[in-house]
From TrEMBL:
UniProt source species: Streptomyces sparsogenes DSM 40356
Protein's UniProt name: dTDP-4-dehydrorhamnose reductase
Keywords on record: NADP, Oxidoreductase
Pathway the protein takes part in: Carbohydrate biosynthesis; dTDP-L-rhamnose biosynthesis
Superkingdom to which the source organism belongs: Bacteria
Keyword flag Oxidoreductase: yes
Organism lineage string: Bacteria, Bacillati, Actinomycetota, Actinomycetes, Kitasatosporales
Any coiled-coil regions, as ranges: none
CC per GO annotation: cytosol
Limits of the RmlD-like substrate binding domain: 10-290
Enzyme class: oxidoreductase
Matching InterPro entries: dTDP_dehydrorham_reduct, NAD(P)-bd_dom_sf, RmlD-like-bd
Ranges annotated as spanning the membrane: none
Function: Catalyzes the reduction of dTDP-6-deoxy-L-lyxo-4-hexulose to yield dTDP-L-rhamnose.
């Protein structure tokens, strides 16, 4: 294996919500960072991926590039697999050639969502959607190719500045509608991109120092909520009546792709890397709140 000739970090999908946050936080730390959008690095092109990684020779690659339109994925399996399943494999082989570490972002959708306890990193996956199956394929490509330098970071319920997400949609709807109906039978861990970016930096730094073993990690803010619970907290932080949020069931909001009823991810693995679990989701949301804006609805938003 070759050794990387740079201390820099390369971020794919850098135009996305998490990619922008991660890039900004690396820059604030003075870490050399190469933020690349799809025009500069198309992860579905194996030759292109090899050439780009060889050119920059980063110490760490963080793959934030993904197909995330969950409902649209149901009718585009081949197209989605190229991005979510094959793309990470192309990056992994390029990283193997240069000695770079690879941090691959993944999702709670790799699980069936049927447990009544937090999913552990070692629990067997059982995806029920095209999105979940393709993301699992990407995980396996990374771990098979880079058993000693590949890191899969599963997260869920992301929100942040600069992208369509549930929290920003609730902020907008609070100003537009008297009441909002939100799903109350899906459970997960709301996660701020700011905290996730910090955790990715901590994991990559620990990996470079040899204190974080390769493999799977779960990275969500601690605690759990339903979408209804999260919406009420958003309304509370806005200073408006949380009673304006009305609970509904998933059956009342039919979607092409099934949503996991249980997306709570355990974070036991962090102690292996010498890190504590991420903080409670309410604390994170309160800090993030002033930075959030009001984008158009995303197809993943469980509201009507």
């Amino acid at each position: 294996m070759s050794l990387p000739s740079s201390t820099g970090w390369l971020v794919t999908g850098a135009a996305g919500m998490l990619g922008r946050e991660l890039t900004a936080r690396l820059e604030r730390r003075g870490v050399p960072v190469f933020p690349l959008g799809r025009d500069a690095l198309d992860i579905t092109d194996p030759a292109g991926a090899r050439a780009v990684i060889a050119r920059y020779r980063p110490a760490v690659v963080v793959n934030c590039a993904a197909w995330t339109a969950v409902d649209a994925a149901e009718s585009r399996h081949g197209q989605v697999m190229k991005v979510n399943g094959e793309g990470p494999g192309h990056l992994a082989r390029a990283c193997r050639a240069t000695g770079a570490l690879l941090l691959q972002l993944s999702t709670d959708y790799v699980f069936a969502g049927v447990l009544d306890r937090p999913y552990r990193e070692e629990d067997p996956p059982g995806p029920c959607t095209v999105y979940g199956r393709t993301k699992l394929a990407g995980e396996r490509a990374v771990l098979d190719t880079l058993p000693d330098s590949g890191y899969v970071v599963r997260t869920a319920w992301l929100y942040g500045a600069g992208g369509a997400n549930f929290v920003s949609t609730m902020i907008r709807l609070a100003a537009e509608q008297d009441t909002v109906a939100v799903v109350d039978d899906q459970h997960g861990g709301p996660t701020w991109t700011g905290d996730l970016a910090d955790r990715l930096i901590a994991l990559g730094t620990a990996a470079l120092s040899g204190t974080a073993p390769a493999g799977v990690y779960h990275a969500t803010n601690s605690g759990r909520a339903t979408w209804y619970t999260l919406a009420r907290e958003v309304f509370r932080l806005l200073g408006t009546d949380p009673g304006r949020v009305r609970p509904i069931s998933s059956r009342e909001l039919a979607r092409p792709a099934a949503r996991p009823a249980w997306s709570v991810l355990g974070q036991e693995r962090w102690r292996d890397a010498g890190l504590d679990p991420m903080r409670d989701w309410r604390s994170a949301l309160a800090e993030a709140f002033p930075t959030l804006h009001r984008p158009a609805d995303g197809d993943h938003v469980p509201v009507r």
